[in-house]
Design goal:
- By secondary structure, this protein is an alpha+beta fold.
- It has a single domain (2-140), classed as Sandwich (Jelly Rolls), CATH 2.60.120.380.
- It is 16% helix and 43% strand.
- It has 2 helices and 10 strands.
- The protein has helices at residues 2-17, 19-25; strands at residues 32-33, 45-46, 51-56, 63-69, 73-81, 85-90, 96-100, 110-115, 118-126, 133-140.
- The strands form 2 sheets. It has a 5-stranded mixed sheet, with no helix packed on it. It has a 5-stranded mixed sheet with strand order 2-4-9-6-7, covered by helices on one side.
- Strand 6 (85-90) and strand 7 form a beta hairpin.
- The radius of gyration is 15 Å and the shape is globular.
- The chain starts with a helix and ends with a strand.
- Bound molecules: calcium ion (3 copies).
- One calcium ion (CA) is lined by residues 36-39, 61-63.
């Protein structure tokens, strides 16, 4: 995962450079924007900060994220958007654990599931693969 290493290096650099740089790289919600290309599992973006912002563009775009769970508990994964997202949750073996279209607010997506320790992947796409989503916020808690 070269992309994952790059993210770690970038995070270390940002922390060295201080608060001003961090503020510059964050959107107002406090969630950092996705880093394209994240179009398959090998180049997934980290969701360990708890939230990311992204867009589904061009039509057919797929956004992959990974996060780590240390204990066992109920995990909420949710998109907030004015568009129409679908989300898919996979374990580290890439077995599909759950998917959702509209259980969130509006056409946003929500998965609530009990997860044990490990690394998990979330894929965000546009419902029907026939339009763009100008912005979404993806949260895991
Ligand atoms: Ca995207
Ligand atoms: Ca993408
Ligand atoms: Ca939806």
């Amino acid at each position: 995962m070269a992309k994952r290493l790059l993210v770690l290096v970038m995070a270390a650099t940002v922390s060295l450079m201080g608060v001003v740089v961090v503020a510059d790289t964050m959107e107002q919600s406090g969630c950092s924007w996705e880093q394209e290309s994240n179009n398959d599992v090998t180049v997934a973006d980290s969701l360990d900060s708890g939230c990311r912002q992204g867009s589904i563009s061009p039509v057919g775009d797929a956004d992959w994220y990974y996060f780590n769970v240390s204990g066992t508990g109920s995990i909420h994964i949710e998109t907030t958007t004015s568009g129409d997202t679908e989300i898919y949750l996979y374990n580290s073996s890439l077995s599909l654990l759950a998917s959702d279209d509209d259980s969130g607010v509006g056409y946003g997506s929500l998965i609530v599931r009990s997860l044990g320790p490990g690394t998990y992947f979330v894929q965000v796409v546009e419902h029907g693969y026939d339009s763009t989503v100008s912005a979404y916020e993806l949260r895991v808690r």
